[in-house]
Amino acid sequence: MKIQHPHNNLFEKVMELKSAVKALIRHFFPKYILAELDLSTLEQVHDSFVTGQLAKLYSDTVYSCQWKGQNTYLSFLFEHKSKYEVPDLQLMTYAIQGYKKQQEQWQSDKEKVSPFEPTLIIPVLLYHGRETWQATTFTDLFKLPNSYFKDFIPSCKYLLIDLKQHPDDQLETIEMKILLGMLLLFKYKGDKQYVLNNVQKIFIFVEEGIQENLVHAYIKLFVLYIYHTFKIK
């Protein structure tokens, strides 16, 4: 049986683990953002920003977290890509859906404060493709007679995690080994020999001391991903 969207399946299941998301934030986020976060308040938002036809093709994982010393939350929208493309339009769609949901919740709140104060949404893009990620933006696609017209083009900045730019010895310092296993499988997508030579690295989470039923579930998840993605019997 062929699994539809195996990258999405693995990404979603690993990113359900709060400890994996915390480890990803600590390892990859810029220091100026990390310094402002209260990671003890990190919680998954079980309300996707992907709607309609997009839901058949894409997935998102959303977490909220408080700023240090403040009661207001910001949201992190996690997405992944295995092929290069200009991502702004898709990420903008996600973010706009998120802000619309915030506004709808504010409008439905009978005790709402005025005016509407949205919480920040920061898109985070994990890239694990072979092509070099270009710094091209949606704005760059336009041929404009004058640069002043750029002010009328919507844009969406995002945090990029390009696995090609992170050597294995740096990745192996990640304390949450289920996350490490997923990142290595993503980074070496299609390299069957790498998997055969590095089984212990990929499955090192078995030795982490996490609860037994969780270990069994992720062993099965990783094996199925390897079987369908690397064509290893």
Could you please describe the fold and organization of this structure?
There is one protein chain. By secondary structure, this protein is an alpha/beta fold. It contains nine helices and five strands, in the order αααβββαββααααα. The protein has helices spanning 6-15, 18-28, 31-34, 88-108, 168-171, 177-187, 192-197, 199-202, 212-230, and strands at 37-45, 61-67, 73-81, 121-127, 159-162. Strands 1-2-3-4-5 form a five-stranded mixed beta sheet, sandwiched between helices. Helix 4 (88-108) links the parallel strand 3 (73-81) and strand 4. Helix 1 (6-15) runs antiparallel to helix 6 (177-187) and helix 1 packs antiparallel against helix 9. The two termini are 13 Å apart.
How would you sum up this structure in a few lines?
By secondary structure, this protein is of the alpha/beta class.
Q: Strand order, biggest sheet?
A: 1-2-3-4-5
What's the rounded overall pLDDT mean?
A: 85
Helix content: 25-40%
The amount of beta strand, in percent, is 15-25%
Largest sheet: 5 strands, mixed
Terminal Cα span: 13 Å
Strand elements, count: 5
Low-pLDDT segments: 50-59
H/E element order: HHHEEEHEEHHHHH
Rg, alpha carbons? 19 Å
